[in-house]
Design goal:
The chain has helices spanning 4-12, 23-26, 31-37, 50-74, 79-85, 90-97, 136-142, 146-154, 162-174, 200-212, 249-252, 256-271, 288-293, 297-300, 305-314, 329-341, 367-377, and strands at 46-49, 108-114, 119-126, 186-191, 216-221, 225-227, 233-235, 238-239, 242-245, 275-277, 318-320, 346-350, 360-361, 382-386, 393-396, 403-415, 418-427, 443-450. By secondary structure, the chain is an alpha+beta fold. Helix 3 (31-37) packs antiparallel against helix 10 (200-212), helix 4 packs across helix 15 and helix 5 crosses helix 6.
């Protein structure tokens, strides 16, 4: 996506001695953020029109509303029937549905490609266990680099701080807890059993950024939460006003200790003693297979014309490949037949998965490997999704001055207030097709927005 702002930035980066070639190298990063991410940063930030990304966030909110309406609209209000249709096992549905209200919190992050014309939604991660919420620390650090600050001022650049949205949500949750300080509640980020250390750099950076926003953030695991006589939960003997959930349903199901801890947490939340942000209810709709339902004829028939247009505009065609589905068996057979016949235009993805684990890109494997992958997909919650060809983001190599094209995966947040900030992970095509930090070629960066039209006379 080569906007006029990007073109100007590339022109300003052309001189070998320009600080705009690699402003991240000159930025004074916060200590923990720098330690966690400093070695995987793209040389420059990415730019996008504020109206465009704001409109996409509005579309995401609309897709969210459609998704959460599906159990009632298409499955008689039965979340188990709905869950079966997207390949969720009963034990996961039971965990996700405990304490469900039918009105999950709108707090989500899309993973999206931009095809040069518009954003296309690859997946919608619904719930509080989201990475990238602390990325605005990089925005602020870049604005401390004089050359970049001058460019930002000349081109009307701005940014949305996701942490501001998250802190507002946490303070709002604390507002329902009688003994909580509404401005400085005690918040505990809670992971699943044994998982806190796996991503300690991520959590410590979130803790660092949240402290700058006036919130003390404790770190712990769900089994460490204890319940007082008054029903309030505590972590390491500290009473907790709000739990910021970073555990997933898969970490709880099948673990009796964690399951009992979740019940205590849901009980404290219902009683208003310790608020939970956000309940696992949203996980019912975060599966990529939930998006796939929107293309099934029997589900599509329940959508309004406006909703159908929305789905067609932002969501690549997605087929549910769940052989265990009790709904739409004819749709399943048709989906599998299409996937078998169209390898090069499809990607296989687990419905619920992280860090691109289990992803198979059809054009990168042989026909035999593709058919084997489809056989494996038939016994769990997989989808086949139409491949989106993203526009490349040009980035000047700081050392040699060569301009390379990078594929950018846009992480775009949406909250009840609308657009909630964005960040990007990027990869050069020659370094692979799956953008994840498990791939050593992946780099991350922040996003700056600009007005719809930036004056051609703007200069640094």
């Amino acid at each position: 996506m080569d906007s006029s702002v990007t073109s100007r930035y590339l022109a300003a980066s052309a001189a070998p001695d320009s600080d705009l070639r690699n402003p991240t190298a000159h930025a004074e990063l916060p200590a923990v953020f720098g330690k966690s991410y400093g070695h995987v940063l793209l040389p420059r930030p990415l730019f996008v029109s504020e109206p465009e990304i704001g409109a996409f966030a509005d579309d995401l909110a609309a897709i969210f509303r459609v998704l959460v309406s599906l159990p009632d609209r298409c499955f008689g209000g039965d979340v188990y029937r709905y869950g079966a249709a997207i390949g969720l096992p009963d034990e996961l549905i039971e965990v996700m549905a405990e304490g469900a209200t039918g009105d999950p919190v709108l707090y989500a992050r899309a993973d999206a490609f931009h095809d040069g014309t518009r954003f296309r939604l690859l997946e919608l991660n619904i719930g509080s266990e989201l990475g990238g919420v602390d990325t605005a620390q990089l925005n602020r650090a870049l604005l401390g680099v004089p050359a970049f600050r001058a460019f930002a001022e000349a081109n009307g650049l701005g940014h949305t701080d996701t942490m501001v949205h998250l802190v507002a949500a946490l303070r709002g949750a604390a507002g329902g807890v009688p003994d909580a300080d509404p401005v400085h509640p005690v918040v505990a980020l809670i992971e699943g059993p044994g998982a806190l250390g796996e991503h300690d750099g991520v959590f410590l950076s979130i803790q660092e950024d949240m402290r700058n926003h006036g919130i003390e953030l404790l770190l712990g695991e769900i089994q460490e939460l204890t319940e007082g006589a008054d029903g309030k939960l505590a972590l390491h003997d500290r009473p907790v006003d709000v739990v910021l959930r970073y555990f997933a349903a898969g970490q709880i199901a099948g673990d009796p200790v964690a399951r009992a801890a979740l019940t205590r947490l849901n009980r404290a939340h219902a009683a208003g003693r310790t608020a939970l942000f956000s309940p696992l209810e949203g996980a019912l709709f975060t599966s990529k297979a939930a998006l796939g339902l929107l293309h099934r004829p029997e589900v599509r028939a329940a959508l309004t014309a406006t909703e159908q247009e929305l789905v067609d505009r932002i969501l690549p065609r997605t087929w549910v490949l769940s052989g265990e589905s009790t709904e739409g068996t004819e749709s399943y057979r048709q989906a599998l037949a299409h996937a078998r016949a169209h390898r090069t235009s499809l990607v296989l993805k687990p419905g619920i998965g992280y860090s691109a684990d289990g992803v198979v890109i059809g054009r990168d494997v042989t026909e035999e490997q593709w058919q084997e992958a489809l056989e494996r997909a038939a016994v769990r919650d997989y989808v086949a999704q139409e491949l989106v060809t993203p526009a490349l983001e040009p980035v000047v190599d700081p050392a040699g001055g060569r301009t390379d094209g990078w594929v950018a995966n846009w992480g775009i947040f949406v909250t009840p207030q609308g657009f909630g900030g964005a960040f990007c992970r990027a990869l050069r095509p020659e370094d692979g097709a799956v953008i994840t930090y498990a791939n050593p070629g992946t780099r991350g960066t922040c996003v700056f927005t600009h007005p719809a039209t930036v004056s051609e006379e703007s200069r640094i």
